[in-house]
Every structure is written in C-alpha cells, then in structure tokens.
Design goal:
The complex is a heterodimer of chains A (113) and B (109).
Chain A: E1 4-7, E2 10-13, E3 19-25, E4 31-38, E5 42-49, E6 56-57, E7 64-66, E8 76-78, E9 87-94, E10 103-104, E11 108-112
Parallel strand pairs in A: 2-11
Antiparallel strand pairs in A: 1-3, 3-8, 4-5, 4-9, 5-6, 7-8, 9-10, 9-11
Chain B: E1 3-5, E2 9-13, E3 18-25, E4 32-37, E5 44-49, E6 53-57, E7 60-65, E8 70-75, E9 84-91, E10 97-99, E11 103-108
Parallel strand pairs in B: 2-11
Antiparallel strand pairs in B: 1-3, 3-8, 4-5, 4-9, 6-7, 7-8, 9-10, 9-11
The chains are: A mainly beta (113), B mainly beta (109).
C-alpha cells in the first residue's frame, strides 16, 4: 500500500505555462486536500474535496483549479503559472471530511520562472 | 481569518525535554492537531486533542486548554532524530484545518 503519491516530485516551469500536479491515494479516503507550503507561512489550503464529484475553495484558491472524478485521484491545475505560485505543494487525504486525521503525500516542489 | 501562533525556533540538548507552545484564535474549535515534518518531507501525524487535558503517547505528549486557546507539545528524552519542524493545526467551525507556521526544533549532542 503506497498511501498517497504525488507527481512530479519537482518541476521548473516557465511563467504562463499550464501545469497539472497529480495526486493519487489508495486508502479509499473520501476527502482530499491540496495545500501549499511557503517559508514562514505554514501550510495553506488551496482546494478540497469532501467526496468524489464535489470540490470546494480553500484559503488561497485563485489561479488553481481541481477536479475529483473518482475517489482515488485529485489533480491540481495551474492554468497559467505565475512566479508567486513557486512553492511546495502537498496533497492530503482523510477518511471523512471534518475532524478525521489528514495524511500527506510527499509533496511537489514547483518553481515558476 | 484564523490566527495560530507558535515560536519559530527552539534548540535543546539530546536527552532533554522541550515544550512547544501554540496559541490560537479561531472561529470555533473542533480539535487541534500536532504534526511533525522533517526537512524535505511530508508532515506526519503526531496527536489530536479535542478535550481539555493531557494526551500521552510515548515520548510525546500534547496538552489542550480550550478556554485559554492554548496547546503545547512536550517532547521528552530528546533524540537527534527529533530535529524537525512541529506544526500546530486547528479545525475551526468550517471543519477546515488551519496551520501555524511551524516550530523548528534543533537537537544538539
């Protein structure tokens, strides 16, 4: 059992390009989340999905979109990357939305030039 | 917005005890988590408190006082492998997790 996997591990991207970060979990968790982590700011929620077929906006959703076509996958898309989106992106999942413990993937380090 | 404060850095000696404080001001409260994050790695779950009091789990303990908006994580018998960032996170009334900026603990021999 892998838990949560993310791809790519790292990426350097030119500004204006489109990029999709992939996240897959094999724990059959209902809820999934995307966070970005920046030095001195901690983890901030970008988008979430409480169950397959539904998504919601977190604290910093602008410039990002997500989809949840099935239970396992939760891709994050940057339609037109900007340098301020340079960050480490973590995907997480929990059995249910609410107070269940969230488990994190290994992260994707994204640099936008 | 949610406000979660914790010290930026702490240093302690191997074998010692360190206490990491976390204060929070959030819209509602549905629980508090502590996560450990080693450099370049994912956060990993340490503890969850929703009721007042102390939860002990091996060398790590977590305390919560809801009336004071305060929690601490106590690390005993420090080991070199405990050098990491420790993240305090609160579930508020919208059931979303809000994180503090993290406390980097350095354990010295």
């Amino acid at each position: 059992i892998a838990g949560i996997t993310q791809a790519p591990t790292s990426q350097i991207l030119a500004a204006g390009r489109r990029m999709t970060l992939r996240c897959t979990q094999d724990m059959r968790h209902n809820a999934m989340y995307w966070y970005r982590q920046d030095l001195g700011l901690g983890l901030r929620l970008i988008h979430y999905s409480n169950t397959a077929g539904t998504t919601g906006k977190g604290e910093v959703p602008d410039g990002y979109s997500v989809s949840r076509a099935n239970t396992d996958d939760f891709p994050l898309t940057l339609a037109s990357a900007v340098p301020s989106q340079t960050s480490v992106y973590f995907c997480a999942s929990s059995d249910r939305a609410g107070t269940d413990t969230q488990y994190f993937g290994p992260g994707t380090r994204l640099t936008v030039l | 917005g949610q406000n979660i404060d914790q010290p930026t850095e702490m240093t302690a000696t191997e074998g010692a005890i360190v206490q990491i404080n976390c204060t929070y001001q959030t819209s509602g409260f549905n629980g508090l988590f502590w996560y450990q994050q080693h450099a370049g790695e994912a956060p990993t779950f340490l503890s969850y408190n929703v009721l007042d009091g102390l939860e002990e789990k091996g060398r790590f303990s977590s305390f919560l006082s809801r009336s004071k908006g305060y929690s601490y994580l106590l690390l005993k018998e420090l080991q070199m492998k405990d050098s990491a960032s420790y993240l305090c996170a609160v579930i508020s009334d919208d059931y979303k997790l809000s994180f503090g900026a993290g406390t980097t603990v350095t354990v010295r021999a």
